[in-house]
Structures are given as structure tokens and as C-alpha cells.
Amino acid sequence: MEIFYYLVFGALSLVVAALELSKTSKDRITTSSTFNSFKNNYLVVYSLMMAGDWLQGPYVYFLYSQYGFDKGEIGRLFIAGFGSSMLFGTIVGSLADKQGRKRACVTYCITYILSCITKHSPQYKVLMLGRILGGIATSLLFSAFESWLVAEHFKRGFESQWLSLTFSKAIFLGNGLIAIVAGLFANLLADNLGFGPVAPFDAAACILAIGMAIILSSWSENYGDASESKNLLTQFRGAAVAIASDEKIALLGAIQSLFEGSMYTFVFLWTPALSPNEEEIPHGFIFATFMLSSMLGSSIASRLMARSHLKVEGYMQIVFSISAVTLLLPIITNFLVPSSNVKGGSISFSGSIQLFGFCTFEACVGIFWPSIMKMRSQYIPEEARSTIMNFFRIPLNIFVCIVLYNVNAFPITIMFGMCSIFLFMAAVLQRRLMVVSESHKSKSQDWSAMKDRDADSEPLTV
């Protein structure tokens, strides 16, 4: 492997280490020992849940190809996963508000373990069932755990600013360090030790079982609106009304869908972008570099959110704009850098430039996750939190299914251009969210001042 990749990884490692070690009191949030115990318990569970997810990622496509399925059949399996997340996952995830968030988290573990077991079968129908179960589990992963955390945080009387600390640490570990370690561990099991491509799925099932045991033994239950009169249809209607009647919630959902849709599209596009002429690139090492970039972003986010005078709605406009520019790089280099028709070889000069841009995009992803979690905790009503969060994922899953179905229909530059436009739109909507939020806050302050003034005024005497 070329020294270029080691230099990029090493430079990022030094920057992340420097950021973490150079934190001052201004960059840290002072908390209580009780909160630290609660936070650490959640971080252990969340890290195990993400490890169970990340262990499977590098070998899903490879396992299907080893079973003899072609690109079209594998594509349909992936579409089934996202479609399941949109349909069944939305229903199951929404039940968390009524049936309990802890119960939903346990359901995630059981569902994903069953999905891992199906990977032992070469039968297409069994693998399709596994993808459907995996889609349901994904919806629970990205809604139930966050909903449980937010509700439990405020139920225990912790300060709202402390929540951002848990979010940033969860992304730093779960979407950064754990992803890197899981990728290396999966490679060790499947390739170095020779256990084959099913081994990472077995390891994931074991880790999920450990996490489930911790949840069952140490988590308490919490609910959204658990009233008997509210069935699932009523919950959906209430969530739809909340989104339609509150511009802030609608804007937040649109921002999330635009960014995550671009992010998942990038997952499919970065390999052909860096190796258009079948250049030999170390996919696993580049993936680890991207995850390290995400850790850098979450470290930056923790510093930003530790400063109470900085508003998430403000700095995220810059983050979305930067991410939009980074995904324009494949188009820019396509016009400015002469292309080579030589097959194979090492990464091109154009690919090297794009790699730096993609690392910057991943850093933006690292900032995005804890920041969007913070905004969701502020704007989404507690009684329908899981339901609304799963509603947000419906347009995302539709978009990804369309992209997967048409991934070969458009040139790669068109796809990147579309993602860049979506990210610029997210920046514009983020600006609108900040304006609406400040306007609402100003009106609330005026109303409170008016009530205080009326209370302090002396009654008229006749």
C-alpha cells in the first residue's frame, strides 16, 4: 500500500489527538458524578449496538457475491432493506412511544440477531428475510435509543446542555472509533483467521446479545404517550399534524432527509469516484480514514456545543455549505484535471484531490450527527418522538431506493452534482430554521414580559 494513504491517516490521527488533548475548561462541560455514570452506561450500550452494525457492513455485498448472486440480485436485496426500513420499520419504531423505548431497544437486538443468523443460508428468500429484518432493526437503531436517552435524561433532572456531551461522545465512539475497530476486527475474522465472510455476522450477534443483557439489567422503561385511547393510526396522524403545523419540525425533517440522502448516496459513489479506471485502492484502509475524519468532526462538534453562546442552527449552515462544496470536487476535477485511460495502477492525482475532499465531507458528517440530535431534542415533542423521527426517515429511504435502482443510469458526476444541490438546499433550510426559531423565541419572551408586567401592575380601585 502506498505511503500516501499512511500519510493521510497519520495526519488525521495527529489532528484528532491534538484536538482531544488540547481541550480547555471552555471546551468541557462540568457535570455531576451521577450524570457521568448514566452517560457512561449509555455509551457502553450504544457502542455495542453500533459495533453490531459496523461489523456487518464490510462483508454484506461480498457474502452475497460469494453465494453466487449477481449485481442486480444483490441490488434488490439492498433495496429490500431500505424499503423494509421505510414500511415495517416505521411502524415498529413508532410503537416505541406507546409500548416503551427500552422494549424497542431490546427488539432491535433480537431483530438484528435474527438477521445475522439468516446470513448462514445461501437461499435467496432467506437472505431477503434477513434484509427485511435488518431494515426494521435500522429504524429502531436510529430512533429508539435516542428517544430513550432524551426522555431518561430529563426524567432524571439533568441539565439540557449535558445532553450534547452524550451526543458528541456517542458519535465519537460509535460512528468513529468503534467503526474503525469493527472494520479491522471483521477483516481479522474473515480473512486473517480464515473463518470466512459469515464470521463477522456471528460476532455481531454475540456483541448485540451482550448489549441486550446490559439493557435488560440496567435500563428503566420510559414512554412517549402511552394512553390506551391512542392506537398506531392515531399516533401517525398526531405525528403528521405536528410536522404540518410546526414549521420548525418540518424544516428539521427536510434538512435531515437532504443530508442523510446525500450521505448514503456518497457511500455508493466514493469507490467508483476514486478508481474510475479500476485503480488499485485499499478500500478497508480508506474506510478507516473516513471514520477517523468523522471522529475529527465529532470532536469539533463537542467543542462547538460546549459554548453556550454558539447556536447549533448557526454553525450548521456553514457545515452544510462546506459539505456541498466537497461533493462538487469530482465534477471540478473531471473538467480541470486530464483523465487517464490507463487501466489499473495507483490512485490518480484527481483521485488524491477527491480523497481530501471526501475526508472533509466525512468530518462534516461527524459534526452533523450530534448537532442534529441536539436540534431534535429541542424541537420534537416528547410524546411522539420515536414516531416523528421514523417519519423523517420515510423520504430518506424512498430517495435511497431510487438511487440504488438507477445507480447505473446516470454519470457519476450527475449524481455528485445532485447531492451537492441537496446539501446547498439543506444550508438554506437551516438558515430558515434559525430565523423561525429566533422569531418564536422572541415572541415567547415578549409574551412572558407582558404577563409579568400585568401581574406587577396594581389593580384599579373604584
Automatic annotation (TrEMBL):
List GO terms (cellular component aspect).
plasma membrane
Report which residue ranges the record marks as coiled coil. Answer: none
One BP annotation, GO: monoatomic ion transport
Q: Which UniProt keywords apply?
A: Cell membrane, Ion transport, Membrane, Transmembrane, Transmembrane helix, Transport
Q: Report the superkingdom from the record.
A: Eukaryota
**Where can this protein be found?**
Cell membrane
Q: Where are the transmembrane segments?
A: 6-22, 43-62, 74-96, 129-150, 170-189, 201-219, 285-306, 318-337, 349-369, 390-406, 412-429
Instruction: Cite the GO molecular-function annotations of the record.
Output: molybdate ion transmembrane transporter activity
Query: What membrane topology is annotated for this entry?
Result: Multi-pass membrane protein
Q: Which PANTHER family match?
A: MOLYBDATE-ANION TRANSPORTER, SAM (S-ADENOSYL METHIONINE) TRANSPORTER
Q: What does this protein do?
A: Mediates high-affinity intracellular uptake of the rare oligo-element molybdenum.
State the name under which the record lists this protein: Molybdate-anion transporter
